[in-house]
Amino acid sequence: MSLASLERDFKKEFDLDRLLKAHAASTGVSALLGGFVGIVSIGRTSLNRAVGGGAMSGVIASAICLAMLVGASGLIAYVPKAALGALVMFLGLNMLKNWLWDQITAVNLHELAQIVLIVVLVANYGYVVGFAAGTVISCIVFAVAYSHIPLANLTTNLSALPSSVVRPRQAVEMLSTRASGTVVYRFDGYMFFGSAKKIDAVFQTMDMAKVEAIVMDFTLVNGIDRSAISAFQRILRRYADLPLHFYFVHPESGWDLQRSLLEDGSLHGQVSFFQVLDLALEAAEERILNSTTVAGYAPSCFDFLDNVADREVFRSYCDFKQFESGDMLCHEGELSDAVYFVNSGSFDVIKPLDSKPGRRLAKISVGAMVGEMALYTGKARTASIQATVPSSAYILSKLALARMRAELPELVTRFEHMVIRKVSESLARSNQLVTTLR
Questions:
Q1: Which of 181, 238, 327, 398 has the greatest count of CB atoms below 10 A from its CB?
Q2: C-alpha span between 422 and 215 (Å, rounded)
Q3: pLDDT tens across 230-247, in order?
Q4: In CATH, 308-437 is 2.60.120.10
């Protein structure tokens, strides 16, 4: 702390490691000679600099002290008392100027009041009282100020922040009717009693009749104390009787949050935990789809064709292939001229990372299509696609599409209309995500 103050005074950066080593060495020598533990004196260092002293000043001061130690203490009698008094007065006035008068224009009114109070306490009751009072005041001011900082850096819902799962059009339409009922919060900073109370107040004013689920992302939170966890437990107990589900997202290091929230066994069915926000959003979407699926409806990868006969004709131009869990549909960098329609199972779009597990960019569910960009551009794949469970897909090659265009141009026109709509929706979703996460 002293060195940080001196850095501000000197307007330069010190080599902290070198200074600590020098401080340790001097303290060791002093201890061997029965001396005091060394300290970094802000006042003396500032005074030495103000009067033009440098590195040699310390050597001279040490020599004088050593001379007095060996019996030359009478030398101090030759220093005029007026000079010593003026030195002390200069030091005191200079410190008051730097730490009080110069701060009038540099700090706000509340900070200036704190400084004045600490100076008054030091003058009347001593340095220890002033230091203790300053520490307590700083803690109170920090707690009050921090509790007023917006804790949620993102407040939205599932319609504005969907998961990366690529779904068939019918599933997307089902989600659009109820996605706004799933609220998404992404928290930031440190959570303590002040911020937790503010979160609790937000939930108390929320119209829970319109809310089906709440996703809370803690991956950017750098700490959470017990009082904040108690606030979340209180929130869960308050809404335990409602058909409301909570999705908590926390980093791998945040298992304490999960364990603490599950101390109450009655909350187990009401809460789900994830380490990635996208997985929590996917789970929230699946919950909506499972509760709204139309009886007898089964997603088909050729739903863009209304006529069953047209679907069978289109299917005849495709190759069918089955995949085991872990099999690759395609690899990043491959040249491909085919589009894939997921018939069963699911696939993950993965971006390989050096010496690390690949990062999931999207999930391709039953009825969805993938690879249409490579089909028309002929460029290399920008990511790998891997089966997550035993799956199957229909594959439409560029040659088969050309043959279909020659034989059934109207069928190809409907397919390309679907591709254009899908690309447009993907672009709109990307723009929406940029706006939401900005």
A1: 181
A2: 27
A3: 778 878 888 888 888 889
A4: yes
**Domain ranges across the chain:** 2-146, 152-292, 308-437
Q: pLDDT of 125-172, one tens digit each?
A: 988 888 899 889 888 887 776 666 656 667 888 888 888 888 887 888
Contact 350, 386 (CB under 8 A): yes
Q: 152-292 in CATH: which number?
A: 3.30.750.24
Token code pair at residue 209: 């009749």
Looking at residue 30, the DSSP 8-state letter turns out to be: H
Mutual orientation of helices 109-125 and 127-147 as an angle, nearest 10°? 160
For residue 150, which phi and psi values (nearest 5 degrees)? -55, 120
For residue 48, the Cα-to-chain-centroid distance in whole angstroms is 46
Give dist(CA 317, CA 336) in Å, integer: 17
- Where is 408: in which H helix or E strand? none
Q: Per the structure block, which two tokens stand in for 220?
A: 């950017």
Residue 296 pLDDT > 60, yes or no?
no
Cα(87)–Cα(83) distance, rounded to whole angstroms?
Answer: 6
Q: What residues contact 250, with CB distance under 8 A and at least 6 apart?
A: 218, 219, 221, 257, 258, 273, 275
Distance CA 76, CA 97 (A): 29
Q: Does the pTM exceed 0.85?
A: no
